[in-house]
Amino acid sequence: MKRTSILLGACSLFAAVVALPADFKVIANSSVSSSSISADELKDVFLLTKNSFGGGHAEPVLEKGGATHEAFVKSYLGKTDTALQTYYRSLVFTGKASMPKTLAADTEVVAYVAKTKGAIGYVSASAATEGVKTLEVK
Amino acid sequence: MHTKTRLFTLITVLCAASAGLHAQDLSNYTTFQVDGRTVQIHGFVSQGFLGSNDNNYLTTKSSDGSFAFTDFGVNISTQITDKFRVGAQFYDRNLGNLGNWHPQLDWAMGDYKFADWFGVRAGKVKTVLGLFNDTQDMEFLHTWAILPQSMYPLDLRASTIAHTGGDVYGNIRLKKFGDLSYTGYAGLQSFDKYGGYVYGLVNDGLTLRGLAAKQYGVDLRWNNLLPGLLFGVSYLHAPTSSVTATIQVAPTVIFPFGIKDQQNTAAYYGEYKFRNLTLDGEYRRQILTGTENVGPLPAILFGEDGRGGYASAAYRVSKRLELGTYHSRFYPLWPASQGAANHMFDTVATAKIDLVGRWDLKIEGHFMDGYGTYYSFRGFYPQDNPAGLKPRTNLLVIRTGWNF
Fold it and tell me: What's the complex ipTM?
């Protein structure tokens, strides 16, 4: 009985951990030729060390706070939102990068990604993503 | 107005202003389109208070309590093409007798990124040296109100802050072994006629006319060999620095004074972030060799071996509060480092409070031992302490800043 409880507990914990990425999906402009992106590439694009992907320029698009944003930043960038903003500002104020586009809601992110060549963003798993492609994260 | 009243008023006004500004999304006003291109404007401002027990610090009257610790900067940038970006930043400060509100071009450059692993920046470019050289002016990026002065002296910031020339840079992913960032640069060193070097020489009767120094350097940093771990090395070489000045040797006799030296600086650093904990450590060694010429007198050979470093720990207790401590040591003339006149040690405790929006408030205690040599030009100057320097200094720093 005790062993079963431990096993169930471990499974629940595992499910909780692996469920995080499923809370959102990564979307891209139709100009992005690839249908998948590696976790490392995704991290590099959002940390602004990689500005090309899928045969062209890559532009990250972020959400302004919220559960989807927190989950994405924690899962793929390994940072808190506070640490990410500090990181971006260290680049902006030394001239090494511009602040990436940040939008308030899923609908705004989808609309911007749909019209912007090379744009890559993330939205909640339940968001309608008409006009953009969904990238599989490997 | 009494110092305590002014301090209370300042904090109250800043807190109230921060709450008001938080209610607005400034990005609507600071990001706009010009001719189809997105232009961004960003800025920052900070105000500090310094209060010390005996010695006056950083050219302020800190022993009486001083608010002469203000700086601000503003930048503008735009992406011209997918690979080409331009931008510039102005910076201004008033720190005691330094800066004196004279604005400086902090950086201004074009940046062309050929590939993720290779890009070029040209113009006036911030110099990468150690963990924080290029971000040392932006208090909001750091836990500390004043960064460790063994590595990032506020009064000597111009000597390493930027170069006019160019960088090559890039990032190379090493798969399971993290990634490697590199920067190589060459150019002319910055010179600040309102900085601590000029101010310190005045006390020696020297009037600085100019400083010309080419510098070359490289920085390599290995990120995420383990999650959250960074370590790196920087090297800066200035083959020929030339200081030209004049010195009054008698009421009507002024001699030319010149220094020609060579500088070699090496820095080794590491950072580890685990959950809410950040650990940093740096070590730097600067070797100067050269000659001094005073009028017709024979040249005097000199050599200096300066060493410094610090270890720090910061812990984010909550969303709004971060606590930290560091211990910094600087030896201007290694190994002759015994006594207050040959070393500067600083033990620091800080509380950083993130107020609403992008406002922060830091309260920091410094417990300093020693004041360095007569030529250190790091915080303690004879002309600010005419009664002589005491071996120990306790300093309270309160600093608040905002950025957009």
Answer: 0.90
